[in-house]
Amino acid sequence: MAIRVGVIEDHPLYRYAVANVLSGAGDIELGPVAESVAAFASSQEPAGCVVVLDLKLRGVTDSQAVQEVVRMGHKVLVVSAHAGQEEVLGAVSAGARGYLSKDADGDDILHAIREIAAGNSYVSPTLASYLLDSTRPRAGVSSVLSDRERQVLSLVAAGERDADIAEAMSISVRTVRSYLDRIRDKTGRRRRPELTRLAIEEGMA
């Protein structure tokens, strides 16, 4: 069976180039090609597609874009010009099955798609070190958190912003940030992707 692949990319020239590479592969069937997550969702593509996703989009963006596409039942391959540690860890924590920078050529993208379609994950060797160097799991660290701190952490893992967390918990944004400071001090995790990974490791996400 051909691998069904969609594309979400807001740069017209790069979107066309990726679609052209996919169309030329004999084992790939090109699905919806869209400029935003909303436009892709409107195509009502059946679950099970591999989606080549840019991170910096109009509307839903970054790890939230990954989460939205994963919720639709698709496997996400991020191909982004933004390939720092925070972006890579955030995307993987949000459910991306692969990550490439836009330096990748057509063969790299096709190889990653085939790996993901086969049930594997794929991160380019130059970016894999971010995953290896990310903070090691600390057994039971969530046990040192209060119930409210655990609640804040679970909302962070869900991709909520500080203002959204404040509204959900009926507290001020300042209080949310105070909780986050305490969580960071207690766990040693500083960045939001690291906090998301902690929540996943501890079964809170």
TrEMBL record:
HTH luxR-type domain mapped to chain residues: 138-203
Keywords: DNA-binding, Phosphoprotein
UniProt-listed Pfam families: GerE (PF00196), Response_reg (PF00072)
Gene3D superfamilies: 3.40.50.2300
Post-translational modification 4-aspartylphosphate, affected residues: D54
UniProt xrefs under SMART domains: HTH_LUXR (SM00421), REC (SM00448)
InterPro entries from the UniProt entry: CheY-like_superfamily, NreC/VraR/RcsB-like_REC, Sig_transdc_resp-reg_C-effctor, Sig_transdc_resp-reg_receiver, Tscrpt_reg_LuxR_C, WalR-like
Superkingdom, taxonomy of origin: Bacteria
Record's keyword annotation contains Transmembrane helix: no
Residue ranges of domain Response regulatory in the record: 4-117
Name used for this protein in its record: Response regulator transcription factor
Species: Amycolatopsis thermalba
